[in-house]
Amino acid sequence: MKAGAVSVITPPLVEGPKVVFFIPTPHNFSFAMEMANGGYGIPVTITVVTTWALIALFFLFFNWGLKNLEMIPGKKQAFFETLYDVYNSLVTQMFGKRGKEFVVYISALISFIAISNITSFFPIPGFSTANGQFVISPLLRSPSADINTTLGLALITTFMFIYVAIKENGIKGYVGGLCDPTPVMLPMNIIGELAKPTNISMRLFGNAFAGMVIMGLLYMAAPAVLPAPLHLYFDLFQGLVQSFVFTMLTMVYIQGSMATEN
User: Fold this and answer.
1) Which are the contacts of 159, defined by CB distance < 8 A and separation ≥ 6?
2) Residue 44: in which H helix or E strand, if any?
3) What is the β-pairing status of strands 133-138 and 6-8?
4) C-alpha torsion sign, points 177, 181, 184, 185
5) Which residues pair with 127 in a beta bridge?
6) CA neighbours closer than 13 Å in the CB half-sphere of residue 115
7) CB 222 within 8 A of CB 97
8) How far apart are CA 110 and CA 203, in angstroms?
9) In the chain, fewer beta carbons within 10 Å around the N or the C end?
């Protein structure tokens, strides 16, 4: 809608992550794109900016929470200890006594995905100008709604369970496992390994992006009635559920790569 020189806009229903700014580079630099002024630079998208903001938020939050630890915890320290106990319990239930090897990675993974998924639940406004008008639009965009983010997280998980498999069984044992029960199954087993990151990345991306599209449709159909309460489901509840699902599948894949006795 428009009011004089002020425009309040809602992003299109299907929209990729927009470029926020460019980092200037030589024209022959890899991944460089031509800018409007004729120069070249690496595009930095809203996904990257949001991810940087979340990293800074995590750093400040945990740096504040883990200062001045005491033997008799206060309310702040008790909260962080409880949070750690929840993560540790989740990982221990899956990996048993070996849970301490993975608690740092799993806790960081579920925390980042959960906060990423619910970013759109907090409509922080951004301000810019376009065509001589002052434009107000969402400042941040859920990183989970970008396939690059979810695929990156899935590849880290893939590296993790392949590393564990090689550490547990050796390279010969890992390759031999791909040939079970017969060498004829090698191509199918390789496809199965490649399907794991595809599965978890597309699941997370699909749910996050679909939620954005559905909420956009609801705003078009009934902007004053339906959207507000449904944000609790599509942005908050579903976001937390999908972070748990991604993390559980990650732990299942890692556990499946361990030696049989574990």
Assistant:
1) none
2) strand 40-45
3) parallel
4) negative
5) 136
6) 16
7) no
8) 15
9) N
Q: Could you read off the pLDDT tens digit of each residue along the chain, which spans 262 residues?
A: 445 555 555 555 566 788 888 888 887 777 778 777 778 888 888 889 999 999 999 999 988 988 887 888 888 888 999 999 999 999 998 888 888 889 999 999 999 999 998 887 777 777 766 666 666 667 778 899 889 999 999 999 999 989 988 888 888 888 888 888 888 888 888 888 888 899 899 999 988 888 877 777 777 776 656 566 776 777 788 888 889 999 999 999 998 888 644 4
State the Cα–Cα distance between residues 251 and 79, nearest whole angstrom: 25
Cα separation of 94 and 251, whole Å? 7
- E strands along 58-178, which residues? 125-130, 133-138
Nearest to 8 by CA among 123, 117, 122: 123
Question: For residues 207 and 150, is the Cβ–Cβ distance under 8 A?
Answer: no
The Cα 72–Cα 85 span in angstroms is: 16
Q: Is-contact 160 95, C-beta < 8 A?
A: no
CA distance 167 to 174: 9
Between CA 145 and CA 168 the distance in angstroms is 35
